[in-house]
Records
---
Amino acid sequence: MTEPDAIVRARLRAVPKVDVLARHDALSPARRSQGDAAIVRAAREVTAAIRRAVLDGGEAPSLDEAVRAVLASLDAARMARVRRVINGTGVLLHTNLGRAPLSSSAAARAADVGRGYDALELDLATGGRGRRGAFVEHALTTLTGAEAALVVNNNAAAVLLALTALASGRGVIVSRGELVEIGGGFRVPEVLARSGARMIEVGTTNRTRLADYERALDEHPDVAVILSVHPGNFRISGFTEQPSLSEVARLAEARGKWLVDDLGGGALLDLRELAGLEGEPVVAERVKAGAHLVCFSTDKVLGGPQGGAIVGRAELLAAVRRDPLARALRLGPMPTAALEATLEHYLVGELDAVPVLAMMRQPADDVRRRVEGWQAALAERGVAVMVVACEGRVGGGTFAEEPVPSYALRIACETLGADDLARRLRLGEPAVLPRIVEDAVLVDGRTVLDGEDAALLDAIVAAMTPRS
């Protein structure tokens, strides 16, 4: 054996054994919270990484250093769990934070259902099999004027299911100006391909005329569906043209084709009147305009749990419901219960009970007074901050990022940069997600929920406190 090989073998012998590392006393608290299997797995990963480093010419760390590496791995796994976060970003529907927060009654209804058995598919009056989501469907048809409704686990699933059921193996016409990509790389052409339909593009990116749809129908007799896609945050301005939904609906009706409208957001009310926000179509208006099916999210401006709804013609919903994919995409009991409670708020007019609607409607001056109260409370605890005017966003692919006037705490620290301070807030308990503007941390008051004030102030004080 050459001298370098002997050195490497000596270093490998210094690598801590998995069982010795996993049994270390310093890991006892983690063992109680995460279990033996997680400890052993982390120990194996750490020792494997050490071996690779040694083979690359590095030195084996001490046992204490290896234990710290195991603890770091376990801590990273723990932080990856879903946990409560205070939203200080000013984005009302923050996709990374689960979009719409639930109302207290919706959260309570979901928790109540989750604690026991539930009548998810049981008719209590007859004792026989019931229809999953029956009340949700009743509420959605009442609120939208549609003949029938179906709920699945998100809007992407709703669009995929509708196209699969109605157009698999056939043509689907879509305007080039509506071939958008939304967050997470979700692209309309890819959904069409997955549904088994053949995409037929019409028009140009900025101009599509009714004649373009007519020509495509003449040239492609196998067309089953005309797909309309709301562009969400995407906008083209200037030299543009697009026929109205009612014009396309009349053409579809005359030619015996189905018009499917991928609306995305899911506004059940006119938010221009409700909150002064422009640009988000109302589901009922799309149904009235003649769309045969309208697909939309239940966790965006509707303000409920993650889900997707399809409303429209009863005969089409019957066909969609029969598709085997409908079972694979159906909504579970807890989100169904939460959605029921959310829709009940709409039915009885309790709009401010829906957090996202309340946040949209809250006057900016009310936000300012609340943030000024935080400023005063922090000053009493020796933390100096500023109150600044800012602009939030609705988010969630809605309103083309139309600004929402707001106020925020501006937090700056002489000993910490903005990135370090923001990281401390994110890793605190509770976690706080701010945004960084001009090397200062902002906590927007509009998106901090009622009841989170005291926890937010404690988190800010903890983040600003020097650490040894």
Note: Residues 3-77 form one domain.
---
Amino acid sequence: MSVRNISDTARWVAWYRAVESDRPDALFHDPYARRLAGTRGADIARTMPGAKSLGWVMVTRTCLFDELVMRAVTSGAVDTVLNLAAGFDARPYRLPLPAALHWVEVDLPPLLEEKQSLLAGERPACELETVPLDLADVAGRAALFARVGARSRGVLVLTEGLLAYLAPEDVLALARALHVQAPIRQWTTDLASPYIMKRVMKRANDRLRQAGSAFRFAPEEGEEFFRPAGWVATEFHSMMEEAQRLGREMPLAGFFRLLSRLMPPGRRAEMARRYRSGVVLLERT
């Protein structure tokens, strides 16, 4: 089954959360994921080239974002979470968030309309605001960021699975737009190396490109890409290392670790750079 548009990728990702939630040793429970994914999300996951091998990545990424959100919220560092391109994320409903937290989710109007319909009758744990907006609308997003900043003491921005679909210049423009608002202090996003984007994701990306949703952002300099826009990485959580910690490693991970130990140091460092991917916590400079 082909991916028709960017909204289909939200169904696809929700399916991975549904599968993890069904496990007896589930790392998280998302009772809404199967409903949000629907049969289309399940079909995409079954037929997308290489999709089965991505399950460990999606589950690990979900766990890392969950952990960073809960840490920021419970520490009192933020009173607002701004989730850009929220897709079918259900964190306001499934995480034990404080009732006073202001959660703002932003995405395309048709997707949010469908999401609201699917979750009708469900009650979020916190104050949830839904903003239908195309983030390519520069004036619209600037107005949103200003409004969120004006009412917040500290804001954590989430861009889970978003930046990979943007051109580098658009990511830089978004980073600068966020930095304009002083209360926007932290930003959590995921990053992959150019090698992973070009080689590991090649088959899936060919399918996504047909739907106009190809991966485009994988900066050679990694998290240093954001420094000119006023953001510095204070944490980097390696996807492979965190997957090992969580018990959700990719197939043959143990073999590849052994192979890595047998490599000369230079070759080992080269392979580490080539396969580097993870979740980054950025803070404004």
Note: Residues 142 and 177 are 7 Å apart (CA to CA).
